[in-house]
UniProtKB/TrEMBL annotation:
Membrane association type: Multi-pass membrane protein
InterPro entries documented for this protein: AA-permease/SLC12A_dom, Amino_acid_permease_CS, APC_YAT
Keyword Ion transport: no
Localization per record: Membrane
Domain Amino acid permease/ SLC12A: start-end pairs: 17-465
Name of the protein described by the UniProt record: Lysine-specific permease
Length: 487
């Protein structure tokens, strides 16, 4: 029988934690900052289309993950599903790919914390802020899973409240109630708007939109430690889809209505300069003088939340790989509180060493960051592939969908759409580099693809694994006792 999370880590994430973690995972600097560059590139209409299409894809991805996670709720689920439903080599590659992605992302986030803090303390040593952020994140993750869940709940709530306030202020500004000038929808027909660059412009924004939604798959990681995964996971998936569409669609609509796509402020949006966040600009247009400081605090919360989630996700993935035999067994040991401390320490050390390379080897640091750039989309591809194989095996073996605690709608359209869009995003990441023959840039951008292929092929060559026949795939659900369900 498959070893499920209650035999190892402790379940302690409540339903409200799972819902808010899933929602908060996709609300961050991608929305607060990078959305401006998407509007500048594709125009207001193009940005809306790209984000809506990517949101629909993410919904199908979440339902695919939900079907597998309710049938087999385990921590570090992606590697397990790849192993059981596709090929052990896929599980091995997916596990290390995802662990590497978040371990590097933690380092990037703690570096960003220092940049954000410079807004208030421009002359303070940046490494101190990064060090404090890493200590804080480690402390939250080493306590108990409930501490992580509660922290993420409140940080995600701050982001959600900010968006509600932004939407209220934005619509009042559009109608001229705030800011003294009604913009209406004139910016949607300004010059080449609403669609700038046509279909290629929309496709180019897929990449930005995709990065904005990175983190939604965390609900699959939390399933292994949720009090009642077969209730909380489907509930989170259903709620998150509508909230994503609502938040992203309305937020981008407000930004595009108030700020013309030709504004240079949108072109230069970066996480290190909150003064040109489209949210900040909208607040300033409405006459709110303290907008920059408030948004800087919100962006700081988002970055810490991302690092906190990254530490949790990478730790659980390393723990799961140890349980599957893909990593040293010592990383599968847990403390009395149910925390895989050695896996947490290893992830923290890697994040710290990566962060230090930004001082001692900036070129190496940039390569590491680039190497983690596409790993999230590769993980999404693996999730969709695993679900496609799981459902086909489930039906082929004579099972009916009524046996599943939760089943994804629109199969096989959902996972196939995810597979196609993931390929489009991965290979469309930097088409210009191919057009100009810039092989160095191609290497930096796409380095994660050959790395994953090397992991996959080396494991396959050493262990002689094969694609698991549909009739041989184990689709049996995990047996959860009442104590497993609610502790």
């Amino acid at each position: 029988m498959v070893k499920t999370a209650p035999e190892h880590v402790k379940r302690g994430l409540k339903s409200r934690h799972v819902s808010m973690i899933a929602l908060g995972g996709c609300i961050g600097t991608g929305l607060f900052v990078a959305s401006g560059s998407a509007i500048h590139t594709a125009g207001p209409g193009g940005a809306l289309v790209a984000y809506i299409l990517m949101g629909i894809m993410v919904y199908f991805l979440m339902t695919s993950l939900g079907e597998m996670a309710t049938n087999l709720p385990v921590s570090g689920s992606f590697a397990t599903y790849g192993t059981k439903y596709v090929d052990p080599a896929v599980g091995f590659a997916m596990g290390w790919n995802y662990w590497f992605n978040w371990a590097i992302t933690v380092a990037v986030d703690i570096s960003t914390v220092a940049l954000v803090m410079q807004f208030w303390f421009p002359h303070f040593p940046t490494w101190i802020w990064s060090g404090l952020a890493l200590i804080l994140i480690f402390g939250i993750n080493v306590l108990a899973v409930s501490a992580f869940g509660e922290t993420e709940f409140w940080m995600s709530l701050i982001k959600v409240v900010t968006i509600f306030i932004f939407l209220g202020v934005g619509f009042l500004t559009i109608f001229g109630i705030m800011g003294g000038h009604a913009t209406g929808l004139t910016n949607f027909t300004y010059r080449q708007a609403p669609f700038v660059g046509g279909v290629p412009g929309i496709i180019s924004v897929f990449v930005v939109a995709g990065f904005s939604f990175q983190g939604t798959e965390l609900v699959g990681i939390t399933a292994g430690e949720a009090d009642d995964p077969r209730h909380s996971v489907p509930k989170a998936i259903h709620e998150v889809f509508w909230r994503i569409i609502l938040f992203y669609f309305l937020a981008i609509f407000v930004i595009a209505a108030i700020i013309p796509y030709t504004s240079p402020d949108l072109l230069g949006s970066t996480a290190s300069d909150v003064s040109i966040s489209p949210f900040t600009i909208v607040f300033k247009r409405a006459g709110l003088a303290a907008a920059a400081s408030v948004m800087n605090a919100v962006i700081l919360t988002s970055v810490i939340s991302s690092a906190n989630s990254g530490m949790y996700a990478s730790t659980r993935m390393l723990y799961s790989m140890a349980d599957e035999g893909y990593a040293p067994k010592r990383f599968g040991r847990v403390s009395r509180r149910g925390i895989p401390v050695l896996a947490l320490l290893a992830t923290t050390v890697v994040s710290l060493l990566t962060f230090l390379t930004s001082f001692f080897g900036p070129k190496l640091y940039l390569w590491l960051v680039a190497a983690s750039g596409l790993t999230g989309f590769i993980a999404w591809f693996g999730i969709a592939l695993s679900h496609y194989r799981f459902r086909r095996a489930f039906v082929k073996q004579g099972h009916t969908l009524s046996e599943l605690k939760y089943h994804a709608q629109w199969f096989p359209f959902g996972p196939i759409m995810c597979l196609i869009l993931c390929i489009v995003v991965i290979f469309g990441q930097d088409v210009g580099a191919f057009a100009h023959g810039n092989w160095f840039q191609i290497g930096v951008t796409y380095i994660s693809v050959p790395l994953v292929l090397i992991l996959y092929l080396s494991y396959k060559w050493i262990h002689h694994t094969k694609l698991i026949p549909l009739d041989d795939i184990d689709v049996s659900p995990a047996q959860l006792t009442d104590d497993n369900q609610k502790q």
